[in-house]
Amino acid sequence: MSMKEWIDMDIDQLELLDVTDIEKARVKQHVLKKRKKAPFWHNIAVAAVIIVGASTATGFAFPSLASQIPFMDNVINYFNDEEQHYKNFEAFSTDIGLTETSNGITVMIDNAVYDGTNITVSFAIETDHDFGEAMKISAPNWFDIVGASGSGGSNQITKISDTRYVGLSTFTPHFKDGKYPETVEVTWSPHAFYSMSNDLEVKGDWSFDFSLDRLDGDIQLVNETIQHKDVSFTLQSVEFTDVSTVISYEQAVTDELLEQWPSVTPVFYVTDDLGHVYINGTGGGGVSPDNGKTFKGTTSFGAIQEGASKLIIQTVEIASLGSGQGHNEIELEPIVIELKQ
Q: Domain named DUF4179: which ranges (predicted)?
């Protein structure tokens, strides 16, 4: 059955199978993949929330139960472009398969991966409500990482049918000691879903928790500094994993520049010597201990295309007044990295 046929399937017309048959089908589907099952952790506080909400929400805490619901799989395919930025996500990500339903909205976390710096989660939503073309999610913390002091990142939600949406979230947790653990524990508790085209807002009780192990990666130290009149930018390293490429950097700006522009943050344009475009004006997560005078962060993109021998990283500093009051762009010299073969 094709993906389109699966998506368009009328759930009411499905023939119910015994649990044993479904489990066999799911094992058969995933045995050919390199994806691994996520270890699950539950503390007393989380368990209490699930029990209290049992009268209003239907929770499926384990993949064996979630697999009984005809829903989505391979969500990442909707976010792959011509450059196949997520081409290895399906093979090396962890199969989460957690599903919860509340107030006519079913949310499923499909897959997730932790590359040692960033976390990417694919998810799907099925709803009885008319949210229109654009949906947003309200949550106190988008995805929360146990032990992290905060996180920054981006997310996108795409409508694929009248009742279904797919989503992708990439975020970078920040740890006070600057060290990233071998395993991260992730929680997510959306409070409400609301439409961007009408006044619809649906509150409910959804709660997820799962663990992710760090992917093995190769780090190539760079430590190249580009000096501008008011900005000093250092590309520290590039880490390569099976699903992503992570660049780590730090920068310092002068007091004079900050007096004129209170916010100075970098965005990146990354290509290779074969012409592939990896990111085109994208920032990343980071922290500043001194109100922007120094800044340390990372940004990530997909795995390097086969055959590429050079990575060209162009940094543009966005000096801003904030709140759409105006900005100035400071273009830095590109950094060319010779890729190890």
A: 41-126
Contact by Cβ (8 Å): 95, 31? no
Q: Which domain holds residue 228?
A: 218-338
Which helix (H) or strand (E) segment holds residue 20: the answer is helix 19-30
Tokens linked to 264: 């100075």
Q: Tell me the pLDDT tens digit for each residue of 18-63.
A: 444 434 433 333 333 344 445 444 332 333 332 222 222 333 333 3
Return all residues near 101 (Cβ < 8 A) that are at least 6 apart. 57, 58, 59, 60, 107
CATH code, domain with 11: 2.60.40.1630
From CA 115, how far away is CA 240, in angstroms rounded? 9
- Look up the pTM and report it: 0.67
The Cβ of residue 87 has, within 10 Å, a number of other Cβ atoms equal to 15
Answer for the pair 105, 128: CB distance below 8 angstroms, yes or no. Answer: yes
The owner of tokens 């992290």 is: 148
